[in-house]
Design goal:
Radius of gyration: 24 Å
Structural class: mainly beta
Largest sheet: 12 strands, antiparallel, barrel
Shape: globular
Number of domains: 1
Helix content: 10-25%
Number of helices: 4
Distance between the termini: 58 Å
CATH class: Mainly Beta
Strand order of the largest sheet: 1-3-4-7-8-9-10-11-12-13-14-15
């Protein structure tokens, strides 16, 4: 009789033990978050995100960037360079949070200060890895909030809707984005613009990438109506991985390049960009 009475107790203990083991086997929210980039690797190409233009793929990363450019009567350093943190919300959506960059002008006439904080949503429309087309197409919407009193670029908040595309060819890739710069007011003082970027990229070794970008800005309305600014931007990227790297592990990328004006009209020139990316 004592043995029979102990059966429900044993059954309850077994159920509890099974539940504990199942809970231990289930991945935590942190593990699921860290596996997002690994999940996307099966759905997207493996090229490197360009230095200036937006990437047609979606990913999770932190970008720490500093740039130094020559302006009329100024040498401007941007701490932040309009980059921040990117996070995935599923297999189609990336959300970016970009804190305001700080501008140091080294100028007697231009004030130092913060620029615009921004957010961006990127929607992966379609993509395939190297075995399934090696391509990516995404739609983007960037929003920059109204700036502080002293800053170097825009007078108001603005939107940038854009489309990004890319196609890989073995160790080579061709990427492009096109979008509009749409301030919310003060059009007569700052105008509007269309950005068109084209990038050619090569991946010669497992850890090294080189690319060259063409960055064009067509100005409409405002004081620069009808003028075009164009840059060529050579860049290099080096990836660092741990020895026992797995798809869910972080990687660090060190990269840099320089925007060199090739048009007669330009706002700035010789923009040296240095950056560290942590993909997690």
């Amino acid at each position: 009789m004592k043995f029979l009475r102990s059966i429900p107790v044993l059954g309850l203990a077994t159920a509890l033990l099974t539940g504990v083991c199942s809970a231990q086997e289930m991945p935590s929210r942190y593990d699921l978050f860290r596996s997002d980039n690994a999940t996307m690797a099966a759905l997207q190409p493996s090229w490197m995100g360009p230095l200036i233009q937006s990437d047609a793929r979606i990913s999770q990363a932190v970008r720490v960037s500093v740039s130094k450019s020559t302006w009329p009567n100024a040498q401007t350093i941007s701490y932040g360079n309009n980059h921040g943190i990117s996070m995935l919300a599923g297999t189609h959506l990336q959300v970016d949070l970009d804190p305001p960059s700080f501008f140091r002008n080294h100028s007697a006439t231009l004030h130092d200060g913060f620029g615009n904080a921004g957010t961006q949503a990127k929607w992966r429309i379609a993509s395939g890895n190297a075995e399934h087309g090696n391509f990516a197409v995404s739609a983007l919407l960037y929003h920059a909030f109204a700036p502080r009193v002293y800053q170097n670029q825009f007078l108001t908040s603005f939107y940038v809707p854009a489309v990004a595309v890319g196609k890989g060819f073995g160790r080579f890739a061709a990427l492009s984005t096109i979008g509009g710069i749409l301030p919310t007011s003060k059009i007569a003082q700052q105008g509007r613009g269309i950005e068109w970027n084209i990038t050619a990229q090569v991946h010669p070794t497992p850890k090294l990438w080189f690319d060259i970008e063409n960055n064009a800005l067509f100005n409409y309305a405002g004081p620069f109506d009808g003028k075009t600014q164009n840059f060529l931007t050579p860049a290099a990227f080096y990836m660092v991985k741990r020895k026992d790297w797995g798809p869910a592990h972080s990687v660090v990328v060190f990269d840099g390049g320089m925007q060199i004006a090739t048009s007669g009209f330009y706002f700035y020139n010789h923009n040296l960009v240095t950056e560290m990316r942590v993909l997690f």
